[in-house]
Design brief:
- The chain has 186 residues and is α+β, with helices and mostly antiparallel strands.
- A two-stranded antiparallel ribbon has the order 1-2. Strands 3-4 form a two-stranded antiparallel sheet. The protein has a two-stranded antiparallel sheet with strand order 5-6.
- α2 crosses α5, α2 packs parallel to α7 and α4 crosses α5.
- It starts with a helix and ends with a strand.
Length: 186
């Protein structure tokens, strides 16, 4: 750890390097400092979707109709329109690869019933995982008061997410191809 600190010179407010299998901290810098997690928030959104699939509550092939709220997310998006229909798999890919806020929000609505119920589950799951310095206000990571996490807590949920091998498969690509009605997003 001292060796890693001497070798690494990371220009960031906070950082953590963790052994993916053991969770051992190999390097840390302000890793308990609460900061706005931005799109890293989607790690929890994706984790809850993958867990819902594992539990059989939803499936990758389920078709999801995009709501007006989801289509109006702004920020990073794939420009979904109200009424577009995508599969859960395509929403996961769009949330994971281009970090699409509209897709993440639609996924949250589908998994949670409402975005608000989904955010409640995000916070509940964070506590279950021991993420005690994290508070989510939305499933996208768009700026919100009292929406924060730490490098340490993010490492916990990231280690949990990569247990789902499909996520690693999907995120190993720089591009995705999904379709809604007659449109093709790449």
């Amino acid at each position: 750890s001292v060796f890693a600190g001497e070798v690494l010179n990371i220009d960031a407010k906070a950082a953590i390097l963790v052994d993916g299998e053991t969770g051992q901290i190999l390097y840390g810098k302000n890793f308990h400092e609460r900061l706005a997690p931005a799109s890293i928030t989607k790690i929890m959104t994706l984790l809850l979707a993958m867990e819902a699939i594992d539990e059989g509550r939803i499936s990758l092939g389920d078709k999801v109709t995009i709501s007006t709220a989801a289509s109006g997310m702004g920020g990073s998006q794939i420009w979904l329109a109200p009424g577009d229909v995508l599969t859960v798999e395509d929403l996961i890919k769009a949330a994971a690869v281009p970090s699409a806020n509209d897709a993440a929000f639609a996924l949250a609505e589908y998994v949670g019933g409402t975005a608000e119920q989904f955010v409640d589950r995000m916070n509940e799951r964070a506590r279950e995982l021991g993420m005690y310095n994290t508070r989510f206000q939305n499933p996208t990571g768009l700026d919100a008061t009292d929406h924060y996490s730490t490098a340490y807590d993010i490492s916990i949920m990231a280690r949990e997410l990569i247990k789902h091998k499909k996520i690693l498969e999907w995120t190993s690509s720089w591009t995705i191809q999904i379709s809604t009605r007659d449109q093709l997003y790449a």
